[in-house]
Amino acid sequence: MGQDYAYILAAKLGAEHAELGLTFLNRGISGDRVPLLAARWQADTLAIKPNVLSILVGINDTLFGDLKGETTEQYEQGFDQLLAQTLAALPNLKIVLGQPFLLPVGKHRATYAAEFAELKKRQAAVQRLATKYHLPLVRYQDAFDAACQKAPADYWTWDGVHPTYAGHWLMMQTWLETVSSFWPKG
Q1: Which of 19, 100, 133, 165 is the S-S candidate for 59 at Cβ 3.0 to 4.6 Å?
Q2: Which residues form the SGNH hydrolase-type esterase domain (predicted)?
């Protein structure tokens, strides 16, 4: 499971709903981008047949995508294909999309304006996909931006991309609030 917001979420929901015997799997891989997800999607997603699938992908596509020749349009098309394929194979699956985020910390401080301008394009793509497929969108960027009113950005993420323990808790809370309001009856 790792030691991140997904782990905290699994711990919280697993304890609160122990009678359901829930199983949580984390198939996230550091550095992943949409084309890398696509390569392992059958084994890591479709074959498992989850009831709920939460996807957060886009910051690596932003920071490293152009170096690999991946445009925002290719990111959106690839992500769209994954969603369409998944819903065709698992029509009752509940999918939650996460908004990729970036804060001006560490090496991203000096390049933040340019990197964030590129990230906003992918954030807009995720918003379009959430709208297209009627899926909840967890607005992590908004949550971190609001949290930075309480404490500096480096309190929430140690490098602009990877959250601290407080940042992971914030992500878990934001995920729960979003999903609970989107599907209030579970």
Answers
A1: 100
A2: 7-169
